[in-house]
Amino acid sequence: MHSFFAEILAELWLWFLDIKYWFKKRKRRKFEKEYHLQKRTMLYPSQKLSLIYVLVILFFASAFMIFESADSHPNRTEKQLLKIARLLEKEKKDIGEYPIVLKTIIRNNPLLKGVTKDHWNNEINYQLSDDGMSYRLFSFGKDRTLNTKDDITIGNKTQFE
């Protein structure tokens, strides 16, 4: 109940400031007309407050976007590799073997169109073992170089070493 009254008082205060401003603006326009001055841009107090709100929201939104995107690429790529691994397991369950080429899992499905790319827009590499019983998925990472610490790998690697 107290917040309701506080909101009403705040709204009344803004109306008071806007009316006070309206008289000030009217006086200013009369002065400008009398002395042939160019009109100056003037904002109502409520407009100033709205402008401040918009600037604060834009600041926090851009800060969030910068910090969110900076470190999330490895996590996103790992999730992408897990998604591909699930699709490969489904393929093995349905057909009885893993596909030879990774693009086979797309099967003209527009929802899976970009599934074979990591979040640095590189192709995800797929390696099938000689016996066809295991596979390895890997992303070269940000540096696009194999066997560096930013590589992300999923699968049964023992068959390949």
UniProtKB/TrEMBL annotation:
Transmembrane residue ranges: 6-23, 49-67
Protein name (database record): Uncharacterized protein
Record has Transmembrane helix as a keyword: yes
UniProtKB keywords: Membrane, Transmembrane, Transmembrane helix
Source organism superkingdom: Bacteria
